[in-house]
Automatic annotation (TrEMBL):
GO molecular function terms attached to this record: DNA binding; DNA-binding transcription factor activity
Domain of life: Bacteria
SMART domains: HTH_MERR
Name of the featured protein: MerR family transcriptional regulator
Organism of derivation: Fusibacillus kribbianus
Length: 279
């Protein structure tokens, strides 16, 4: 059946179906005569199962493991039930505090809000609600991992390549040993750096995300952070080449070492804050 027919039968949107296909959760065949995808009854059943599990909050990675028979549905559902119970407990507690504030018999005013009136031990209360406050403690880390940062790095790389191209020699260094250039490429190679940023974001990042998803919860921000760091390294190497050509700097290892120190320093700070949030 066609994707339009599949939409009508499942009640799912075309974008949902395409997304699940992209994630390899379903594998429709292609009609060799017209090149269109053809969805089977089994695909329709799987789409309904996938959509249902997603409404329970089960992750795409866990669903993929179920589809590939790498996980047991009972265990996945038990794990999700535990996650939901934790979320419900937090929401129920917040609801109780809201009701207590509304039942105080007085008009609520921010200027006169006394936290100790509702929370006996603020320190203990903050510790119990670290999951709700976690983004406040890693805001810089979250910002660095955002798409805007990737756009800025890529645009800077592209502009750097475009502006410097006419001033570059016919060949530029692309490999060094002991501070000396040992391999060269046509100066057009400078445009490979912004292209590399695009490849990292759209081709490499999904692999990073999938690897992290197997080992770490809430991996989206970390995958973005790693991808942006790699783009930052690409930009640094591009700038180094320009400075090397102008004989301003000679050792690329200095640039890469500085990038690595920044990366692991910020990553360690963020992970440490995350660990503190879970205590």
């Amino acid at each position: 059946m066609t994707i339009k027919e599949t939409e009508q039968i499942t009640g799912l949107t075309r974008s949902n179906i395409r997304f699940y296909e992209k994630e390899k959760l379903i594998t429709p065949i292609r009609n060799e005569e017209n090149g269109y995808r053809e969805y089977s009854e089994e695909d329709v059943k799987n789409l309904k199962k996938i959509a249902y599990l997603r409404t329970l909050g089960i992750s795409i990675e866990d669903i993929r493991r179920l589809v590939n028979k790498e996980a047991d549905l009972l265990e996945v559902v038990k794990k999700q039930k535990g996650i939901l119970e934790g979320q419900m407990s937090e929401l129920e507690h917040a609801k109780i505090l809201c009701e207590r504030m509304l039942q105080s018999g007085e008009e609520i005013d921010y200027a006169d809000l006394d936290v100790e009136q509702y929370v006996a031990d603020p320190d203990d209360y903050w510790n119990k609600n670290r999951s709700l406050l976690k983004w406040d403690s890693v805001s810089f880390f979250y910002l660095w991992g955002g798409k805007l940062v990737w756009i800025i790095i890529t645009v800077v790389s592209l502009l750097t390549a475009a502006v410097s191209f006419r001033y570059l020699p016919a060949e530029i260094p692309v490999q060094w040993s002991h501070g000396m250039a040992v391999s060269f490429a046509d100066r057009k190679f400078v445009f490979a750096f912004p292209a590399a940023c695009v490849v990292i974001r759209f081709l490499l990042r999904p692999f990073i995300w999938r690897w992290l998803k197997k080992n770490i919860i809430d991996c989206d921000m970390r995958a973005d952070y790693i991808a942006n760091y790699l783009c930052f390294v690409v930009l640094s190497v591009e700038l180094f080449i320009l400075l090397y050509v102008k004989e301003i700097v000679r050792h690329v290892t200095i640039v890469l070492a500085a990038d690595t120190i920044v990366f692991f320093g910020l990553l360690w700070m963020a992970f440490r804050k995350k660990a503190g949030d879970r205590r």
